[in-house]
Amino acid sequence: MTRTEYARQTFAGNGIDGLLIASMPNIRYLTGFASDEPNVALLLIMPEQQFLITDYRFGEQASEQCNSHTQVVVRDRARESIGETINRLLSAADVRKLGYDQDYFTCSGWQAIADVLSMHNANIHGVSGVVEQLRRKKDEDEIHSMRRAAQVGDQALEQLLGKLHPGMSEREAAIELEYALMQRGSEGLAFPTIFASGPRSARPHGMPSDRFLQKGDLVTIDFGAVINGYRSDMTRSIVIGCADTRQREVYALVKEAQQIGLDCLAAGVPCSEPAKTVDAFLAQTDYSRYAGEGLGHALGLETHEKPYLTAGAETRLEAGFVMTVEPGIYIPGWGGVRIEDDVLITDEGIKILNGFTKNLIEV
To answer: Do the Cβ atoms of 319 and 355 come closer than 8 Å?
Structure first.
């Protein structure tokens, strides 16, 4: 059964018999067409056919990349609006109620389509998460790509550590890391690289600055590679020079918290359980007020996917989910520590996809 056929099986429960998709990751998942640019294609799924609608800029690429059950429609933008193209395709099929992926259309973009469809008395209905639900469980090919992305991340970080030194700027270090990712085969960056040193490492998403590394700095490095569109996401905290007593204490605490979170992961476990368990552990320490919120998130064609490992999450983990586990302690004016791994849930337990050491590194 194809991924599109699985998607069609969800239509009845959503009260629709067709679906219009704007999310590029969802389009890639269902067709193979890949673009980092938003709004370059739409996917129209109908009972018997699916159409990728694009324009002359991407027509050749779409024809090469799309799977055999996707028909490519290259719209003449000067002669036909996107709404008119959709209506033309719908009129040839038995679609009584069209769902549209409401989380990914802009208000103005959807209104332009809806105005045309309403003129032809189309029955349209907003839906959410139809394809994202399917994407949660990764198949063997997806897992292979994610494992490779994690390995590329391991190799790139090892390469960077051999070049870090006091006097190097955060920005220079981030560029070195990103270059190493590309050298090792990454298609791009999973997300903008986080590289924050000294007191700035207390910023969970600190972007690289012109600050120069100094002896004694804590450094937080959070980055990811991309292989076949699939992301890795790893964080390590290191020390430039020799770590002091407090740095070792906080690092050991975060490392223990992460292991507690990892030990909670298993198929069938509610996503809230690991988060609550780690929260309870950190609450008994002197650093509880500095702990970051949430323990992790799902990972795949996007860096942040559902479900999340949070205290209020109700979803249960399933075999095939890939989750991050990333507790952190962030102390304003002093610095922060985060340790993050990518974890595959299986029926037999868990497998950590990246292999970089979690022992405290002193550069």
So the answer is: no
